[in-house]
Amino acid sequence: MEYLKSGKTVIQKEIQALQQLEKSLGDNFNIAAETIANTTGNVIFLGLGKSGHVARKCAATFSSLGIPAFFMHGSDAAHGDLGMVAKDDVCILISYSGKSKELLDILKPLDQIGAEMIAITGNPDSSLAKMCKIHLDIGVRSEADPMGLAPTSSSTATLVLGDALAISLMEKRGFKEEDFALRHPGGNIGKKLLLTVDKIAHTDDKIPIVHTNTKIHEALLTMSEKGLGMTGVVDEKDDLIGIITDGDIRRGLENSDQEIFSKTAAYLMSKSPQKIPSDTLAIKALEIMEEFNITSLFVTETEDPNKLFGVVHIHDILKAEL
What we know:
Shape: elongated
CATH topology of the largest domain: Rossmann fold
CATH superfamily of the largest domain: Glucose-6-phosphate isomerase like protein, domain 1
């Protein structure tokens, strides 16, 4: 219980730190964001120790949202890495104390290069805060640990401030899901945002299709052969007008017994089946299946909604591990 009590106390302190961060943000946040938005170069995050870890994460977040950014270690900057900085870049220097000698030592070279400089500290009276044109105060004056030494509340607040900058810039730039997908082609994120149904649909002779005048027993054979638990029904123009499912067959047997097999597909089919264009995201197709409580969707050509491209089954989407 002592562990739990201590853990909750830390969380409460860090929540309070974030609330203080929200209060501390003002016009300088707008100025910093506008400076970054207007740059034609890169955004370079610099820091050391825990601030360096936070700076690295901030750079990764910016890059993933389409804002060219990278991390530079404060010590390495003074030993040649400043060669990667150009006059059109924006450098964001992170130091909770605002007294990191390694960062202070590179301010003059950065100024000579012509790069914009933004300081993020927890000390508005520090040298770093005063020597940079723009300063963002995280508003945290004490850490969450009992000794007040371990970077806890300060690193959390700095990380959140970096996220706030990144998201505000993303919204300003009109960054869309498609843009995000281009930068995350791997893993589940990439699949969700990039995988379209044309990549997993059953096409050509794998599509279960019968005509309106096809007898029910023949339609049942088609359903069994294709193995999707359904078949589409097309008219004389080969336009999709209906669907017959396993459930339709069962209900037909219950209502008409064996007489159903003398009927045609037009008698048993459900009209106007659900269909989607071939460029529809697979995750969207899954949402439609869940909405209408169905297991299959017909897929049409993107350019011609009347031309059948294929059919996608819920198992196809689940196999894609979305």
